[in-house]
Design a protein that fits this description.
The chain is of the alpha/beta class. Helix content is about 35%, strand content about 25%. It is built from 11 helices and 13 strands. The protein has helices at about 25-30, 40-45, 60-75, 100-105, 125-135, 160-165, 215, 225-250, 265-275, 285-290, 295-305, and strands at about 10-20, 25, 50, 85, 115, 140-150, 170-180, 185-190, 200, 225, 260, 315-325, 325-335. The strands form 4 sheets. The chain has a 5-stranded mixed sheet with strand order 1-7-6-4-5, with helices on both faces. Strand 4, helix 4 and strand 5 (about 115) form a beta-alpha-beta unit. The chain is globular, with a radius of gyration of 19 Å. Bound molecules: oxa(dethia)-CoA (UT7). Oxa(dethia)-CoA binds near residues 44 and 322. Oxa(dethia)-CoA binds near residues 44, 165, 228 and 234.
Length: about 350
């Protein structure tokens, strides 16, 4: 977990953008599909409704629209981007990458590297870090980092333990390099534990067990989750990740203006805030309206806080995520608004 090398340039988030499908699926709607009810879903997860993508709203489309929104917010053009990383666990197709499809849709330059990162709900934090490191050591001035997910395409709509929790959407961040010291990404931590892969996984649909009529009928291509175990691990690992990054950067939790956690369950946010001894009012949440959007959840929550003017120049912000893999990550950044 190295501290950032001060001899290298800083990398900060210049602007954000989002896209969420119009179509809402409420808890009431779900109660007509599976044996569940609004009271259970709300009290156990904090979710009231989620967005569901249509057939023409795939991760590459939603990601491109979120990116276009971010470019507009930054007054930049597609040709200003030197690098694209898309975090997704629901790629349009197994190959080519969603990033390459998005590159074409957005009209990015044809000579830039574009690739996907598969780290599930931690994907945005992983992509941010990889983008940051590539920019600092390489010849890239600006990168697009996108989390885009269509979970509705991999859910078992007959499994009430999972289908009520997830939703679709995309968020994009533009990373930019600056010679200004001590701004943007200040510290990070990434981790994985493949021995617990089966806690959130799908069993078929890849090369190990290709799709057959039987795997489809058994919904083996769909997301399966041991929610109780994941819940306990998420609370512990997210709290520890925050503490470790703060220690690494010599920052106390009181100094952090906003914690932007992966939005999986409101009770997880409450527990992590409790562990860190931080007021829940410093944990913005969009769970009630969007559910768990995996890699899109952090940029969606961050963009909302930014758009509403909650985030100010100089604010310390801690992003923290946990998800399938298992994977986790935390990134501390100092918000930077360059002088116009
Ligand atoms: O994004 C990646 C990370 N993901 C997460 O962090 C998710 C972590 N896990 C969770 O958020 C929670 O564990 C859940 C929301 C998934 C479940 O909450 P829980 O308090 O752990 O409930 P549970 O799984 O222990 O289920 C309690 C009861 C069970 O009934 P019995 O066995 O007590 O009779 C379930 O069958 O609730 C039942 N149940 C439901 N009832 C109504 C499960 N799903 C539903 C449902 N509606 N949708």
């Amino acid at each position: 977990m190295p501290l950032m090398n001060p001899a290298l340039p800083s990398v900060f988030i210049r602007a954000l953008g989002v896209y969420t499908p119009e179509k809402k699926l409420t808890n009431e709607d779900l109660s007509k599909m599976v044996d569940t009810n609004d009271e259970w879903i709300k009290s156990r997860s904090g979710i009231s409704e989620r967005r569901i993508a249509g057939p023409h709203e795939n991760p590459s489309d939603m990601g491109a629209w979120a990116a276009a929104n971010a470019l507009k917010n930054a007054a930049l053009k597609p040709e200003d981007i030197d690098l694209l990383i898309v975090a997704t666990m629901t790629p349009d197709v197994p190959f080519p990458s969603t990033a390459c499809l998005l590159q074409a849709k957005l009209g990015l330059r044809r000579d830039i590297p574009c690739f996907d990162i598969s780290a599930a709900c931690s994907g945005f934090v992983f992509a941010l870090q990889v983008g940051h490191d590539m920019m600092r050591s390489g010849n890239y001035q600006r990168a697009l980092i996108i989390g885009s997910e269509k979970l509705s395409g991999v859910l078992n709509w007959e499994d009430r333990t999972t289908c009520v929790l997830f939703g679709d959407g995309a968020g994009a961040a533009i990373l930019e390099k600056t010679s200004e010291p001590n701004v943007g990404i200040l510290g990070n931590l990434l981790g994985s534990d493949g021995t617990n892969a089966e806690l959130i996984h799908s069993v078929a649909g890849g090369s190990a067990k290709p799709t057959t009529p039987e795997t489809l009928q058994n919904r083996e291509h769909c997301l399966r989750m041991n929610g109780k175990e994941v819940f306990k691990l998420a609370v512990r690992v997210m709290s520890e990740s925050c503490e470790r990054v703060l220690k690494q950067c010599g920052v106390s939790s009181d100094q952090v203006a906003w914690f932007i956690p992966h939005q999986a369950n409101y009770r997880i946010l409450e527990a992590v805030a409790g562990q860190l001894n931080v007021g829940l009012d410093r944990f913005p949440s969009n769970l009630d309206r969007f559910g768990n959007t995996s890699a899109a959840s952090i940029p969606l929550a961050l963009e909302e806080a930014w758009r509403k003017g909650k985030i100010k120049h100089g604010d310390l912000i801690l992003l923290v995520a946990f998800g399938s893999g298992l994977t986790w990550g935390a990134t501390l950044l100092r918000w930077h608004e360059p002088k116009k």
